[in-house]
Specification:
alpha/beta, Rossmann fold, MeTrfase_TRM5/TYW2
Length: 275
């Protein structure tokens, strides 16, 4: 695996990342000072790193270790969008490219969007740069991701159309609801189905609004997952005084997250039922 760099050195254009399963024996560390530069030279790069497991924290920090040189800052260009981040502090989600391309094809010219889990701007930038969204509220609580997100908004010349809500979205997101904004869609980019945490459902008051909900689901459980989404959102709406017809219009199979587990995105629409 390699990440593009912005350091201007031809040999240093990439960080080559050794897989987490490589050189696991502690014996390699004892000769690392001599070994790692040799491996880097053989791979025609001046920056070498060792991939680590994603930290089991709420902020899902990177544990990537730089073996040669000490600069983990990288640039990655995808679909005409520049993503910059420090690979030692935050991971990059490679597998969601097809979903980002799908969102890029939407026409969001007059839409206000909320992304509850923005990261470094994976979907925020897609909606702003490619789908031409009017405004996005970007919620993120990892300080390293927030730093990269703000930089990426500037680098892609779209910072004037994004409001970054830094901190726990359980605190920051309700403030958006209280502003009575005409929010067209909510992007729920989290890896588990936690319907009770959909803090912005109240903002989706106008017919035709959309919720894009991500989840990891066993390949035999897709129907149960979509049924659970519809039922749970309907119950939340009723508890908030609304009577909605909730429809899962489409399920996108984005990638395999693990054997027999699909990463899915459900496109959910709401329609007010007239009493």
């Amino acid at each position: 695996m390699s990440f593009a760099s912005s350091d201007g050195n031809d040999l240093g254009i990439y960080i080559v990342v050794l897989p987490v399963t490589a050189f696991k024996d502690p014996a390699w560390d004892s000769i690392g000072d001599e070994l790692w530069p040799i491996i880097a030279k053989s791979l025609n790069t001046s920056r070498l790193a060792h991939q680590g497991h994603v930290a089991p924290t709420g902020t899902r920090d990177s544990t990537l270790e730089i073996l040669v040189r000490d600069n983990g800052c990288v640039n990655h260009c995808e679909n005409g969008i520049l993503y910059s981040f420090n690979a030692t502090k935050y991971m990059f989600s490679w597998g969601n490219l097809s979903e980002k391309l799908r969102m890029a094809r939407l026409d969001c010219t007059d839409e206000v969007i909320v992304d509850l889990f923005s990261g470094i701007g994976y979907f925020v930038l897609t909606f702003l740069v490619r789908a031409k969204a009017k405004l996005i509220y970007a919620c993120e609580w990892n300080p390293h991701a927030v730093e990269a997100l703000k930089y990426n908004l500037q680098a892609n010349s779209v910072s004037d159309r994004c409001i970054v809500l830094e901190g726990d979205n359980r605190i920051t997101a309700p403030k958006v609801c209280s502003r009575e904004l005409p929010i067209e869609s909510v992007l729920v980019s989290f890896l588990q189905v936690r319907i009770a945490g959909l803090l912005l459902l109240r903002a989706l008051r106008i017919e035709g609004r959309m919720l894009h909900m991500h989840g990891n689901v066993k390949d035999s459980g897709e129907g149960l997952w979509t049924d659970h989404i519809s039922k749970s959102i309907s119950e939340i709406a009723i508890s908030d005084g609304h009577c909605w017809e909730v429809t899962v219009e489409h399920v996108e199979r984005v990638k395999w997250y693990a054997p027999h587990i699909h990463h899915l995105v459900a496109d959910v629409k709401f329609r007010q039922i007239k009493k």
